[in-house]
Amino acid sequence: MKFLIVAAKTGGHVFPALAISEELIKSNHEVTILGTGSDIENKAFKDLNSKTFKLLIQGFRGNNALIKLKVLFQVFINIFKVIKILRNEKIDAMIGFGGFITVPAGLACWIIKKPIFIHEQNSVLGSANKILSKISKINFLGMPIKNINNSIISGNPIRESFFNYDEENENNEGINIYITGGSQGADYINKNIPKSLKGFSNINIKHQSGRNNSNKVKEIYLHNNIDAEVLDFYLNPQQQIFWSDFVISRAGALSLAEITSMNKGILMIPLPNSIDDHQLKNAESIQAEGMGIIHQQNDHIDSLVQKLEEIIINKYYDNWKKIIPKNHINAKKIILDNIQNYFTQK
Fold it and tell me: Can you tell me the distance from the alpha carbon of 197 to that of 79, in angstroms, rounded to the nearest whole number?
């Protein structure tokens, strides 16, 4: 069969799409990628044996009325572009991973009666998935969401590299902490985590600071008499997660899935301006599983220090390592099996 995989712009959409694309190809299906041509898409999909198409479309939420009007026009134009792709490539079905690019693609499939499947990574349906969930054959959920028709809790598909990582570990004494702020929310973590770790002994730090931030963050650590490894980006974050005893991170759904699937707990600092406050809801889901603690950004830094003390002094990280969450490990199989069952029973 031939599947149109639709994902764009953010790792939270693109990397689950990559994981499913690889699994489809392994199962002798063909994959065509539809995105916007961003750097993260190009890097993620470059090794796939698949055709790639690009659409020009902006996001809808959070923009002014003029841009929203422009986006609606882009949706209308792009529906016809996608219909042409569907027919020329003889696509059998679409799998969408969120983002507004999925709207014209999904509507195009609906118009010419091609089945649509969607995957939502977060604890809240995104705007595009809210629209498409009404016409999707199966709504796959990375985290539980109430009152979604035709839904299956699949978990979030994890990239193969997070299972097949080099298990050689550095022989560090002490507690290993990996810190990452993500692409959108590094500033608060970069400024406050180094200060909050002052006074702790016997800790080893690896800190991903984000683009062009490593020198400034390194200076903050040195000012607080902490020896830390700080890089703009780690090429293989799975290696740093494996090295760590626990992770300090924002609460993007995919990051949480990858970290907990490697049996590591998290001090989660949800991005406060995330759409529909989805990062807080993601974090609450992980906390309910017993795999992490939440610190909200508007709380005082003393609260952050206190939570770090609880984790380090009480060795919460040891308890987190004993939990074996399976929510996401089987996600690829669950999604593919259910899609194949749909066509078998059709």
Answer: 51
Over 80: is that where the pLDDT of 324 sits?
Answer: no
Distance from chain centroid for Cα 113? 30
**Global confidence as pTM:** 0.88
Half-sphere exposure of 46 (CA within 13 A, CB side): 6
| Total tally of structural domains belonging to the chain | 2
Residues 199 and 240 in one domain: yes
pLDDT band at 59 (very low <50, low <70, confident <90, very high): low
10 Å Cβ neighbour count for 58?
13
d(CA 331, CA 162): 13
DSSP 36: -
Whether 259 and 282 have beta carbons less than 8 Å apart is answered as: no
Q: Are 312 and 200 spatial neighbours (Cβ–Cβ below 8 Å)?
A: yes
Mean pLDDT of 50-67: 75
What are the structure tokens assigned to 105, written together?
């693609």
Look up residue 260 and give its two tokens. Answer: 């907990």
Instruction: Give the pLDDT confidence of 248-274 residue by residue, as tens digits.
Output: 999 999 999 999 999 999 999 999 888
Q: Are 58 and 100 in contact (CB under 8 A)?
A: yes
76 and 102 together in one domain: yes
**CATH number of 51's domain:** 3.40.50.2000
**Alpha carbons 120 and 281: distance in angstroms, whole number:** 14
Give the range of the structural domain holding residue 210, as residue numbers without chain letter. Answer: 167-322
b/e per residue 143-172 (b: at least 16 CB within 10 A): bebeebeebeebbbbbbeebeeeeeeeeee
Q: Return the pLDDT at 281.
A: 94
Give the residue-averaged pLDDT of 282-303. 94
Q: Which residues 6+ apart lie within 8 Å of 117 measured at CB?
A: 93, 94, 95, 96, 136, 137, 138, 139, 140, 335, 339, 342
Dihedral sign computed on CA atoms, order 264, 178, 161, 184: positive
Helix locations, the chain, DSSP H: 11-26, 39-45, 65-89, 102-111, 127-132, 186-196, 214-223, 237-243, 253-261, 278-288, 301-313, 316-322, 331-345
Domain-located, residue 162: no
